[in-house]
Amino acid sequence: MNITKIVFTFLGLVLVSPLALSQEPLDHNIFYIHEGEGVTPWELSLQFGQVLLEEKRGATVKNSLVAEPASRDAENDAIRFTWNKRKVLTEWGGQNEAVSTVTLTNKAGAIDLAGVKDQVALVLDIRVIDRPSDHVTLSLESNWDWQTRASIPLRSVLRKLPKNEWFSLPLPLQCFKGGDLDFGKLTSMMQLHTDGNLELEISGARLSAFPPDQVTC
Predict the structure, then answer these.
(1) For 136, phi and psi rounded to 5 degrees?
(2) Minimal CA–CA distance to 18: which of 186, 170, 192, 211?
(3) 86: buried, middle or exposed (CB in 10 Å: 19+, 13-18, 0-12)?
(4) What is the pLDDT of residue 23?
(5) pLDDT value at position 87?
């Protein structure tokens, strides 16, 4: 997947701040994170909802993943996630990947993007503080079913982004691969995971138009 080429070719199209917008309530079918918080009914959490955030703060076992407030244009208008490589095993003896996963889940139902999936991208407003030391994946999920997850690898992209600078990172929906994802019943718009070390900040997540004839996955 040539996702790195996609990002840097079209970065200029999505650098405009999403809120030069009105003060009307945000449409949760388009906006998922705003000022570092989930747009209702979207909920940001750690470990697939097992660790809920309070005032943008939370941590999983052994501080494998830590969330804390961050600032972009105003105080506490973003959230920082820090992954610390830790050995945390499941009851079956394998590495527990859940403790190193940020999740964004719809608590009320699902959204239907089937009709636009080839024309839009998920855009993350992001700042890389420390680049990843291991693979990074961002997954979507439908029907609250882990077997439907489809993912994009992000390590190469995050390692090439300038550190400590805000970017709007477009991820075309049609590039999410590897699962039986139902775009008509999306229940998670972000499951961000790495087993290595990584530190980044997120202020927003939203849909943006993306020229379908320019996508190469």
Answers:
(1) -130, 135
(2) 170
(3) middle
(4) 64
(5) 87
Are the C-beta atoms of residues 150 and 177 closer than 8 Å to each other? yes
What pLDDT is attached to residue 5? Answer: 46
Which stretches of the chain drop beneath a pLDDT of 70? 1-23
Q: Using CA atoms, how far apart are residues 152 and 171, in angstroms rounded to an integer?
A: 8
**DSSP-assigned beta bridge partners for residue 87:** none
Long-range contact set of residues 8-11: C-beta below 8 Å, sequence gap at least 24: 8/160, 9/214, 10/170, 10/210, 10/211, 10/214, 11/167, 11/168, 11/169, 11/170
Q: Say how far apart CA 84 and CA 65 lie, in whole Å.
A: 6
Q: Cα(199)–Cα(67) distance, rounded to whole angstroms?
A: 10
Residue 62's pLDDT is what? 95
Among 187, 138, 145, smallest CA distance to 29 is for: 187
Question: What is the dihedral angle through the alpha carbons of 38, 146, 180, 190, rounded to the nearest 10 degrees?
Answer: 20
φ and ψ of 121, to 5 deg = -130, 150
Q: Would you say 88 and 95 are in contact if contact means Cβ atoms under 8 Å apart?
A: yes
Return the closest-CA partner of residue 71 out of 164, 201, 165, 168: 201
Residue 193 identity (one-letter amino acid) = H
